[in-house]
Amino acid sequence: MPLWLARSDVESLLDMPAAIEAVAESYRLDYLGEAELPVRTNIPVARHEGSLMSMPAYLGGEMDALGAKLISFYGTNPSVRGLPAVQGSVMLFDGRNGALLALMDAGFLTAMRTGASGGVAARYLAREDARTLTIFGSGAAAPYQVEAAVCEREIEQIFVLSRKPAHAEAMAATLARDLEIEASATDDIEMAVGAADILVTATSAHEPLFEGGLLRPGVHITGIGSHLPYASEVDAETLKRAKVVVDQMDACLAEAGDLIRPIEDGLYSAERIHAAMGAIIAGDRPGRQNEEEITFFKSVGLAAQDVAVAKVVYERAVEQGAGIRLDG
């Protein structure tokens, strides 16, 4: 009988270090050809101004995990129905026989795996002595990006920028309290970008958030907000100055406006992309090679990450007797 794991169950079972390890392994397996990642499918529900997205994946190796995340997006839900705009679940199957193992809430899991992708990037691309983190964005994904970076580097100062100053203030206060690290909101883009050892973009912006010329040598950038061909959080100058690493080459060249727009404008070439993250983790390509180079990791999110983290949650649930068994 499969398990049902509510958000509260997932929150109690999953921690960031475990999520980072699972996501790193998913990148490695994908690069080694031990993963199956079909193109995500989007089903429009025009009658109700909604859509349903299906993201399936299989991971081989010792993980041997099969699953799919189903996410619905109904933009009018908050104002019309009093429901979240985004809702979803992850279904995890036994890779050996196809049996359904668990159904779990996708909200917290998605936030954690997205944060973990930034943690993996910090591990391989940020300077060892990185101490200052700047983050653009104060939405649901942003705090998890900070948490993941703190897992990998000894961060001492955090700057938060947001188009909603009150949200930036609230997030900075929460980070300072929860992480016991000095954190402050600011609208001084030049200062915050110039001070950053690690810079994270986690917004819904369609245009670049800062000028690439403001970046100081040695900074690492993680871009996780934009995942549409026409939306970009960084400019062409950033790409030209940086060693660019992606979560998956095909996915980023199909979905990441940060790359697509400069390539279409003739300002950047796909051939200049250094590597997929899995190649670095597998040891086939170098990560950061010196203290002065600028690095940029672009992630559009992969179903393999969801399945890898869901496997961790399920295994811990079985060990701890968590969740509800679904009879029938």
CATH fold call of the largest domain = Rossmann fold
Radius of gyration: 19 Å
Q: Treating each run of at least 4 consecutive H or I residues as one helix, how many helices?
A: 12
Strand content: 15-25%
CATH superfamily of the largest domain: NAD(P)-binding Rossmann-like Domain
Walk me through this protein's architecture.
- The protein starts with a strand and ends with a strand.
- The strands form two sheets. Strands 1, 2, 3, 4, 5, 6, 7 and 16 form an eight-stranded mixed sheet that branches. The protein has an eight-stranded parallel sheet with strand order 10-9-8-11-12-15-13-14, sandwiched between helices.
- The protein is built from twelve helices and 16 strands.
- The mean pLDDT is 95.
- It has two domains: 3-109 and 304-325, ornithine cyclodeaminase, domain 1 (2-Layer Sandwich); 124-301, 3-Layer(aba) Sandwich (Rossmann fold), CATH 3.40.50.720.
- α4 (107-125) packs parallel to α5 (142-152).
- The radius of gyration is 19 Å and the shape is globular.
- With 328 residues, it is α/β, with parallel strands linked by helices.
- The protein has helices at 7-13, 16-31, 77-81, 107-125, 142-152, 165-179, 189-195, 236-241, 249-255, 257-264, 277-281, 303-320, and strands spanning 3-5, 35-36, 41-45, 50-59, 65-74, 86-94, 100-105, 132-136, 157-161, 182-185, 198-201, 220-223, 242-246, 275-276, 294-298, 324-325.
- Helices cover 38% and strands 25% of the residues.
